[in-house]
Amino acid sequence: MTEKNKLLAQNIYLILAALFIASLVASNLIFQKFFYWYPFNFEIYGVKLFEVSVGLLPYPITFLITDILSEIYGKRKANQVVITGIFASLFSLGIIFMGKHAPATSWSPVNDNTFNLVFGAAPLAVLASMLAYLFAQLVDIRVYHFWKRYTNGKHLWLRNNFSTFSSQIIDTLTVLLLLCSFGIIAWEQFLGLLISGVIFKIMIALLDTPLLYLAVYWFRKRFNLHPGEEITAF
Description:
The protein has 234 residues and is mainly alpha-helical. Helices cover 71% and strands 3% of the residues. The chain contains seven helices and four strands; from the N terminus they run H-E-E-E-E-H-H-H-H-H-H. Helix 2 runs antiparallel to helix 3 (75-101), helix 2 (59-72) runs parallel beside helix 7 (190-223) and helix 5 (122-150) packs antiparallel against helix 6.
């Protein structure tokens, strides 16, 4: 690989890592708002189908990015981004903690009560999200590479969807168990939110498969990679 291509590959890796971290931190900060899609107006165990947290909107992006990184840059580089995301979450938690204990001025557009209402549960949410995220992402990467080895680098759709399905189920189950245990969400909503969240995430995983194919096609064409070959130049 030429020096120009090495630099390009490194810059793209940094951009993907930045998008991953931004999506992860944003999902932790906005999770307390819930919404549902109006066309799906029926309930599952007292919860409307697709009545989910807005934090789920950016979160699937993280799994698409780890699949791209796993396919193109390898398991080690994908794991590095996952670990970096943990530190970013902890750092954001520290900033929220400082903001919570800094008294608002009398003219502040956001007073202490409003700030605490929006971000008061963030420390517990970040903790729950980090634990769920750590389990889910490590499972995602391991399952992805298992199917990649098993199929000798073929059937990209298989490893993309199998890894994402398994990791998303683990993620949804773990984070809801922790949020209900912390008292942030009522236990009677647990089963409905679990089913809705899993269905929503599986649908998103199916929709992101073409995006993964496009990304992998571009990488292979731009860097002259054979199927299953990874960039290991940096």
